[in-house]
Queue: 3 jobs
Job 1
Amino acid sequence: MPFADMPTLQTAAPIAQAVPAEPRPFTWGDLLPSGVAEWFAVSQTLLPAMMFMPGSQAFRLPLRVGAYAVSLFALILWWFNRGGQRPARHPAERWLLWIGLYLVMMIAHPGTNSLLAGVAQMLLYVAIFCPVFWAPAYVQTPRQLARILVILLVCNGLNSIVGVLQVYDPARWMPPQLSSVYTGDALAAVTYLGPNGRVIIRPPGLFDTPGAVCAAGTVAVLLGLILAVEPIDWWKRMTALAFATAGISAIYLSHVRAAFMVTVGTLIVYLVLLGLQNEKRRATGFLSAAGALLAGGLAISIVLGGQSVEDRFLTLLGSDPGQVYYESRGVQLESAFSSLAVNYPFGAGLARWGMMRNYFGDAGTSEGGELFAEVQPNAWILDGGIPLLLLYSIALGLTAAYELKLIRDLADRNDRLLTAVVTAANLGTLALVFSFIPFGTAVGIQFWFFEGALCGAMANQLRRARTV
């Protein structure tokens, strides 16, 4: 089973020679995070959650930067503590290094907003992809990877539960600072009408941005549903199912159709990977549970959010999905290649869009005026033009191929299942490239953290013998 406490084979010795160690008695301390990787996973929810506290707006910048700074700190810790050593190298590493070098040169681009903002934008990219370098040093067994996935399920599940409660009882659970940040047209853009005409703000979860809970909801749905159908203690399955239900309900209540489609896509990918591994019984149970979860979550969301929730998501069935996508995000994706790539073939300069410009940029400069990007290809082209778009696309393509190769080559069934979990989650992030900017946010950090952890955990696991 993917999350089982499985023995780890550290050498390429025959399977018959592997002797599992005696299991250590359980203690309550086993439930607490330990080590750099596990605490890093917790920090990605804990630090943004601090913005949920009253009066936190005064510390908004350090808290938002903190989630990324922790990644850079882990990189420095790995370099000085482990001497830059790790059990394996990810195939995307060299391309990510080229990206980093290219962005350093882009600081000198005449369109870069300012030196400070340009350096900040470059460091943002490095903070997002650097876990693939340091995570293998701190995650070296499948059991460690499984623990990280469980920790992420708990963190994202709790985040999703808060999101549902923010619709159920906003006076108690909604961040108080939202009322001061979102007013007038800005507030209207993130609200909808619920039961009895009640105005509902799209739930932020343990963040302070409306709708931000969707990313946590997607992770909670996938990991929770996978664990819910595994042959483990019943209370663990029920807890996982509760997290998954909260995750899908939070997505419905956020009215974000792209997040819903990505979530369904991750479930389909995992189901296909189970089929490719001939896991028929597990696939049947997962498919049944997924159908019940999607229907049950919608029912709960309609009770809390009203008929507008159902109407919102029925547009995916009542209209041409391609047309729906084109009207919401496809137009922007089209502009990336018809306009931006033509006008800025080598980039418009760094910090021309997004939070690095808002926090560190010079609003008065005429050279580095503000531009906008709401899908990832647009952001890559603005930051580095066609070269950056190609470099990052190659890195992501190699990553997807690496995951699928691992599933094919790993000898142990549990290792393959665990790899399938990470693959499904990360392919969902790849789908977000066409409707969001995942590799400019903490979603990208999670992607590369998963990759680094998977690379380290499977580095010394047995591979299947290849026949000639």
Job 2
Amino acid sequence: MLYLQIGMEGQNLEYSRTAALASLARIDPGYPPSNVAEVLGRSENERLLEYVHAESFTHLFPGQMPATPVQFLTDLNEELRGSSAIHLWTMIPLCKYRCHFCQFPIMVLSHDAGAAGAATRRWVDANMAEALLWLRAVPRLREAPVAEFCLYGGTPSVLPPEELERLTGFYLENFNMAGAVLRTEGTPDSLDSGTLRVLYELGYRALTYGCQTFDDELLRLAGRRHTGAQSGDAIRKAREIGFSRVDGDLIYGLPGHSVDRFLDDVATMLRLGFDTIVAIKLHLQSFNEVDYAVDNIAPTAWESPAVRARVEERGHRWPSLGEQYQMRELAVRMLADNDRVEHPTTYFQDPRTGPELWRALNLDQSLQVPEIGIGLGCYAWSKRSEAHTLSDPRAYLAKLSAGEIPFGDISRMSDHDREARAIRMALSTCQPLSDSVHRSRFDGRSLFDPPRVHTFESLEARQLLTSDSSDGTIQLTRNGATLVEAIMNVEAW
């Protein structure tokens, strides 16, 4: 099996323990090695090392049994019978430009105003057409209480005011949004004062800014068309207008990144007062090769080994695994010193505002409520099944024209897989797992029953978690939290 390595060679290589260990050993000499580097170097953690060296990444937990649209929709409708909340999100796949790391199924708007306007109308129309199909196919969906509605992309903030109003009004009218938090996202150059005011007037109170970095050189290298200063201006404008929470994303491991540069970004986010600071590692393996919530049909610029090699030839070295884990661990220490709590993995919350609601709804052990994603390349799930919509724009629109929800892959879960998924999701929150909660959800079965107790025992022996059967809790260690994505995906559940 070929894996993607972004070390010195900048090319696709078959997994090699020697190469992976060399990448771990390559560190910034101005800082101590990461703690997790020593953990990954142990032979008993070989599969974890192989996973992180592959640049794999996933947020999904698919079933093992192929399913039909009818089976999925029936499962969802049945689960909504007793659901107290759902997470509803929708995607507008339009951007003004494409970043070199972006793996989402987006289309770049034309510079011609007429063509761009037609594209925004076409994709808002398509989104609402798909939503109506969902409402017809899942009768209980119209009344299910939406806890958080997320307008995502792409860059939904590129929509003109009249299209933002039309799309938001449609969802407010057709879904049970009475108690919902409305969230949207955008780039610092698209969420200007005028757009922010329009969104606020429409009821949006939560924002996610894709800052990525405040370093202007790295922004240009990544294909971004805003500056670090614009990112700072954007949050200040949002606060002045009245948004109750503003969350922001950072990426570490960009070409040319150093530990100092990334820590400067984290310090800037803290100074600006973002409610959530998302610190996510750059991943270059295609989403099409792993299970992720949104697929793409075209490779990103940086997926290409030749492009990565040219970037490095221009003097922008790709950080090693050792350097990336230094960035992560030192950032976590800085964030903890400022009372930030990791919940879930990579999301560092201000405890005064708490976790982003949609993430808690999806992952918290006591929640894990149904999720419905509407739009090109989206994802939806209930406890027994999950479904992707198509990410190819032509195929997606053709299915819509035929009056069908444009489903792609659909799968169902056995009882064993359903329980395993709940455990893996809960682990990803970096919060303690409760045996009593698990028992209440799964007919009295315990986290400490075979076979999964053997996995927990193995992880505890490797100092990646701690367990206490007397009070019924399981908790990741600091190293376990760093490696939780790999733990979820390579251990036996």
Job 3
Amino acid sequence: MNHNYVKVIACLIVSFSGYGLSFSQNNGPEFLQCSDTPDSLCVLDEGVRLPANNQIYLGEGHPDATSCSVHVTQTKRVQSTCGATLQYEVQLFMHDTSAGYILVPLTSIVVDSSGEAELMYNSEESPDQFINSAGIPYTTTCGDYHRIRWVVTDSCGSSTICEQLLDLYDCNPPVNATQDETYNVVIPLGCILILFAKDFDAGGIDDCETSQKLLRSFEPDSYQPTYPIGPCAPAYGVEVPWKIWIAETM
């Protein structure tokens, strides 16, 4: 009986030791790109777009309209040396706080013949209702980054984490409505008439700011909210076209 008992224990030790050796040789999946430099993105970059319910589409007064946020899709490529299957999840820490949002819940993915796989998150597919509706808000101040945490685990149970800072800024210009109306102004004899750009606005709207905060100018590259006419007018009784430019205050 003692002989058999010792033999069973020996088998268990050999089996456990073999597993431990295999585990220690695996360093876990490797992120092929994980940079310390923040990703600085706006709607001009691939994978970044305004939500379909942004106020620029629904209007400022719409109860479901969102503002100052974008949907983002990003990918990370990893390489694994253990098994054909990986599991990964992606979290968002807005403004680098401790409160996290789930962008991708625990998901399985199969590696290709070279042991590589592409991980992806799309904020529109987040299980969090706030994120999948409104998107991810802009980072409004210098150094105010979001933090994206990618966690990937291989078939041996080894995990690797990549944390990437994300800077989302507003580069979407305001949209001005087409103005078909003709304005008639009277210049007092011998006097100067001051035109105000805001009086000729056809209803500009922005993806982030309210229309009241938008700047109206007669010049595209500088803020000129007024324009004097007279005492020598460009023409009398003749229609003269004017261009009004709108810009954000941010």
